[in-house]
Amino acid sequence: TQLLEQSPQFLSIQEGENLTVYCNSSSVFSSLQWYRQEPGEGPVLLVTVVTGGEVKKLKRLTFQFGDARKDSSLHITAAQTGDTGLYLCAGRKTSYDKVIFGPGTSLSVIP
Amino acid sequence: EAGVTQSPTHLIKTRGQQATLRCSPISGHTSVYWYQQALGLGLQFLLWYDEGEERNRGNFPPRFSGRQFPNYSSELNVNALELEDSALYLCASSRTGYGYTFGSGTRLTVV
Fold first, then answer.
1. What does the pLDDT average to over B84-94?
2. Contact predicate A62/A20, CB 8 Å
3. Which residues have CB under 8 Å from B63's CB, separation 6+?
4. Is A103 on the interface with B (CB under 8 A)?
């Protein structure tokens, strides 16, 4: 049983389009993180959200943590080919707990 | 600042052999985490070391073991290798409660 579910599993869009990927759980997390991973490399941390309802922006990427701290979303505006990769959400239940990863959303941005 | 370094980058072993993977964390990070990323299975938590102690262990058999040295570097040992142990093994480091910085991984192939 996956503690963190991500949707969609795969996404292929044209350059310039907008997209949203989702991360959901039945559990409450003290924090959620989003990572991006490229083939053959380790994941790279994009953002950490810790407060229910929190919204963080990183250039064209907008991250939101659900009010109940059980879900999160990542919105990309005007996608670029450089956004291609595997997007992973990850959460920890307490500050001193291990991080659990979702299965990821594989994004392909076509020129 | 040097990132998380892992060695070797690639490792080919025969079924039944032992593999040793190494990880050097970012300076100042006392926690080291090991994850297995097998094809199609996402990141599965293996082990967490902090201040030389094993803090948490994932749902893996005892033939997966490791340790953390006084300089906070770590090694992961996999005994009696099986074909299904073939995967990308990722090491990450962090300060307690913060996001992870991952290395580029060791690609283990068991033949």
1. 96
2. no
3. B78, B79, B80
4. yes
Whole-angstrom distance, CA of residue A27 vs CA of residue A88: 17
pLDDT reported for residue B42? 86
Interface probe with B: pick from A29, A30, A98, most Cβ of B within 10 Å: A98
Query: Sign of the CA dihedral A51, B91, A11, B39?
Result: negative
- Pairwise CB contact (< 8 Å): A48 & B99: yes
Q: Measured between CB atoms, does A40 come within 8 Å of chain B?
A: yes
**DSSP letter string over B42-75?**
EEEEEEEEETTEEEEE-S--TTEEEEE-TTS-EE
Joined together, the tokens standing for residue B1 give 């600042």
Binning pLDDT at 50, 70 and 90, where does residue B97 land?
low
Selected residues 86-105 of chain B with any CB under 8 Å from a CB in chain A: 88, 90, 92, 96-105
3-state secondary structure of B92: strand
- Mean pLDDT for chain A overall: 94
Nearest to B105, CA basis, from B46, B30, B29: B46
Q: Two tokens at B89?
A: 């093994």
CB distance A30 to A94 below 8 Å:
yes
- What would the pLDDT profile of A49-101 be if each residue is shown by its tens digit? 999 999 999 999 999 999 999 999 999 999 999 999 999 999 988 877 888 99
